[in-house]
Amino acid sequence: MNAQIEIYQDNFLTQARYEMTETERNILYMVIAQVRPDDSPMKVYQVSIKEIAKIMGSEEIKFEAYKNATARIVTRLVQGYLPNGDFLQTTFAASAKYKKGTGIIEIALSQEIRPFYVDLKERFTKIQLQAAISLQSIYAKRIYELLCMYKNMKNKTFRRKLVDLKLMLGVMDTKTGKDKYPVWTQFQRDVLEVASREINGHTDLTFTFTPILGDRPGRGRKPVEQVEFEVSYITPNVIDFSPLMDRLLNRFKLRQDQAEEVIESFPIEKINKILYDIEVRMANNEIKNVGSYTAKSFGL
Fold it and tell me: What Gene3D superfamilies does its record include (predicted)?
């Protein structure tokens, strides 16, 4: 799968309230990347755990974590207000199956959620797949999606009420009001600063945030009531892959289709690291068939 692929979702989902682990969100990102408007409403989408690991540039594949995540996806409630004022409560998936021994997960989207991926007209969010999957924290993923709503807007500064932000991120219970981070400094440290470290310098966006204090009368520390975000979009550089293609074909003896798959599937840093390791083994005369070894190193 092309590392630069972009996925789309209605702004309702970007701002909706739900709890989810980063592993579950990665599975859904891969589903979203496959959804097409002319798909059958009953279509079952297949997600490869190995493909997720490739996009992340990770050699470690946590099969058990994804198996457990599959079991939880169908129970995850998503809720929020629609543009007409209705309050929707539904689930992301109608069914989810982990196919034993294959590393494949099968997901069928719920009928209520599917339109938010296909009936996109004006209010939608465009997300870079590799950037979203590569983020480690679920809070970073959700905040990255929120920032993506504004990256193509003229005014890239916006505010969110602190309570609404916490509800969106699932750190505050919608029924009881119980808050995982009742103190602002905790929320700033464990949620916003973590997201800042992961997003800034590692995705197509950078952002800053500023707490906006309330105007409660009297002495003492004023409470934080809103958070102001300022987003900057980094225009990606166009990379000339022809020298890399030449190396893969002539130096490392891959076929044309194999070289193209490597470039589409792996970040450039990951490709160079693997090729460097192969070069070392070649210099030590440890490789008999360079093409076969290179293909195996990239999982081809």
Answer: Winged helix-like DNA-binding domain superfamily/Winged helix DNA-binding domain
Alpha-carbon span 284 to 282, nearest angstrom: 5
Domains 1-134 and 136-236 share a fold: yes
How far is 143 from 14, CA to CA, in rounded Å?
Answer: 9
CA dihedral 31, 190, 18, 16 (to 10 degrees): -90
pLDDT digits (tens, 9 = 90+) for 134-189: 898 999 999 999 999 998 788 889 999 999 999 999 999 878 889 999 999 999 99
Contact 117, 41 (CB under 8 A): no
| Protein fold of 1-134 | Arc Repressor Mutant, subunit A (1.10.10)
Between vectors from CA 277 to CA 271 and to CA 281, what angle results, nearest 5°?
A: 140
pLDDT in tens, 187-230: 999 999 999 999 998 888 999 999 999 876 556 678 899 999 99
Burial category of 283 from C-beta neighbours within 10 Å (exposed 0-12, middle 13-18, buried 19 and up): exposed
| CATH architecture type of domain 136-236 | Orthogonal Bundle (1.10)
- Provide the whole-model pTM: 0.75
Q: What is the dihedral of CA 18, 24, 25, 26, to 10 degrees?
A: 180
* Residue 216, SS3 per DSSP: coil
> Are the C-beta atoms of residues 30 and 76 closer than 8 Å to each other?
no
Q: Which residue has the tokens 């196919």?
A: 99
Ordered by start, the domain boundaries in the chain are 1-134, 136-236, 242-297
Residues facing residue 231 across a β-bridge: 207
Contacts for 209 with CB less than 8 Å, ≥ 6 apart? 192, 196, 227, 228, 229, 230
> Cβ distance 69 to 24 under 8 Å?
yes
